[in-house]
Amino acid sequence: MKKFKFNIRGNDYNVEILNIEDEVAEVEVNGSVYQVEIVKAIKEIKTPKLVRPQVVPSGGSDSAKTSKPSEKKGVGFVKAPLPGTILEVKVKVGDEVKVGDRLLIMEAMKMENDIRSDKSGKIATIKVNNGDSVLEGDVLVEIGE
What is the spatial distance between Cα 21 and Cα 129, in angstroms, rounded to a whole number? Predict the structure, then answer.
């Protein structure tokens, strides 16, 4: 079949592979025939590393600061709490919402989840449509003043 020339610790070896069946190879080394068991090497599989942007609470970076509840806080972002698929959008651009109002229904881990408003205001933009797949932290809806 194939011929090889090896030099091991200063000694030359002429090796010819005569036959291979299953995990046993018949090889001839310098005129002598040997039965050699073939050990299959396990290939190391590299797992890809998933890199995602850091998830920020829906109030943005200013949400850590305290303010009076009656003060206007600007635009708020409603983000996906986990990866899933949008089943139904319950609001339209321009709708007035209060804290706790249902904005959309999202399927995640084979369960339907209500995504509710965490801020009162008017729907500024809707970033998703029915059937869209989203990752954790993706902006779904923007709520303005």
Answer: 58
